[in-house]
Amino acid sequence: MAEAVTLGQRGLLNIGPVKRVHANKENDVPVLSLIQFSKAPYVAFGTVKLGTSKSAVLQLENPIEDVKAEVIVEKIPSSKGFSVDHNTFTIQPESSFSLKISWTPTEEGGIRELITFIANGILKHQAVLLGRAEAPKKKK
């Protein structure tokens, strides 16, 4: 009688794509994949002094082979000082687009806001914007 050998025992078990996320690395760019049920990435601005601006890049990916993605920035918390360099853009199949998001804080304190995108008029996607605004240090 033949013995049943599992895929794990044979060394063929493959556990999905693994993406390494290094939360404290300055060079890591958050990625938003324009597919259903994609996880909302975090765009961290760190600490920004009032009266100054800081920019961060959000990479939007279109992983679909044969369909381009027409993307609209549906909602951005502009009243909190956020802006983007493009409100509408097209991402070719299996390509990506770097969206520059700028933040000029309007008041002191921590912030957690959402930026919302619509892809091809149907799929809604979000990214989380995080940061802390500080008053400039007083000179003695």
Automatic annotation (TrEMBL):
Location(s) in or outside the cell: Cytoplasm
Domain Abnormal spindle-like microcephaly-associated protein ASH: 30-127
Cross-referenced InterPro entries: ASH (IPR031549), CellDiv_DevSignal_Domain (IPR052318), Ig-like_fold (IPR013783)
Record field: transmembrane: none
Any Pfam family matching the protein: ASH
Keywords: Cytoplasm, Repeat
Protein name (database record): Abnormal spindle-like microcephaly-associated protein ASH domain-containing protein
Organism whose genome encodes this protein: Xenotaenia resolanae
